[in-house]
Prior knowledge:
With 288 residues, this protein is α/β, with parallel strands linked by helices. It has helices at residues 13-24, 42-51, 75-96, 128-143, 163-173, 190-203, 220-231, 261-267, 274-284; strands at residues 4-8, 28-30, 56-59, 99-105, 147-152, 155-156, 176-180, 184-185, 188-189, 208-211, 218-219, 237-241.
Amino acid sequence: MSFKILLLGASGLLGSQMDIACKNEKYFVLCPNHQTLDLENPKQLNQYFDEHPVDIVINCAAWSRVDDCEKPDLYPQSQCINGTAVGWLADICMRKDILLIHFSTDYVFNGRKQGYYNETDSVDPVNAYGRTKLMGEQQLMQTHSKYYLIRTSWLFGCGGNNFVKTIVHLLKTRPQIQVVNDQWGSPTATVDLAVWTMRFLKEKPPFGIYHFSNSGYTNWYEFAREIQNQICEFQAEIQPISSALFKRPAARPANSQFDLSKLQKVFHDSPRHWRAALSDYLSKEDFH
Ligand SMILES: NC(=O)c1ccc[n+]([C@@H]2O[C@H](COP(=O)([O-])OP(=O)(O)OC[C@H]3O[C@@H](n4cnc5c(N)ncnc54)[C@H](OP(=O)(O)O)[C@@H]3O)[C@@H](O)[C@H]2O)c1
C-alpha cells in the first residue's frame, strides 16, 4: 500500500534517516523545513494541512538540546515545540483522521527503577527537557487515538551530531577524556528506528506507546570504550567519572534501559544488538 506522509524534522538526526526509509519504501513524502512549517505557529500548521492532505504524519521535530531546556529564557520555546505543538498536531490529525507517529524519550523516567522500563511504568522526569516531552505525550494521548508514541533513547547515526561523533572527535583531539559510568541506558541507531517505523506502517500493530532501542544496554563510559575498540585508531585514555563529579546543567536518569518485550511480542522479532548497529554506523560515517 502506498501512503502520503508528512515528515516533520527531516533535517534532524532521526528525521534524515526517516526520510531515507520512507523513500526506500517508495512512499510519497512531504518534508517541509522548519521555516515552511513552524511548529510554533498553529495558524501556519492548520493552513499547511488544509493545503496538503496526507494519510500519515511522522513527527521527528523536537527541541532536543537537553541542557538548554534548563535555561528559563529558552524553556518556553522548548515547551511549545515538544509539548503544546504536539497537542496542536494531534488535534489536526484527530479531525482529519490521520495516523500520527510521534517520538518521545527515556528521559520521561526518573531512572530510579532497578531493571528495565516498560511502557506502563510511571513517568517522573528529572529535567526540564523530560517535562516538555512528557507534556507532548500527554497532549497526544488526551487528543487522538490513532497514534504510535515511540519512546527511544541514546540516538546515534548519520545526519546529525550525536554521542559517537563527539567521542570520536574527542579521541582524535585529546590525550585523555572523561566519560560518566553511572548512567545506564540503551543506545539506538537511527537507521534501525527508521526501518522499524516503516514496519509499524506495514504491520499495523495496535495503537499506543512502544519502547524502541537496540538490544542490550550499557553506560556512557562503556559505550565510549566500545567506540574506541571498534575504531582501533585513536589511543586517547578514557577515564570513568561519576555524574556527581561531571556536572551538567540538566540531571539525567541513572537508569533508562528499555524493556522491549511489547515490541518483540507484536513483531515477533527483536532489534539487533547496539554493538552490531554501532559497527555498521562506524563503517558508514567518514571519521578519518
Ligand atoms: N537525540 C537523542 O538522543 C534522542 C533520544 C531520545 C529521544 N529522542 C527524540 O527523537 C526525536 C528526534 O530527535 P533528534 O535528535 O533527531 O532531533 P534533532 O536532530 O535536534 O532534529 C530536530 C528537528 O526538529 C526540527 N525543528 C525544531 N524546531 C522546529 C519547529 N519549531 N518547527 C519545525 N521543525 C522544528 C529541526 O529543524 P531545524 O534544524 O531546521 O531547526 C530538526 O529537523 C525527538 O522527538 C527527540 O525528543 C532523541
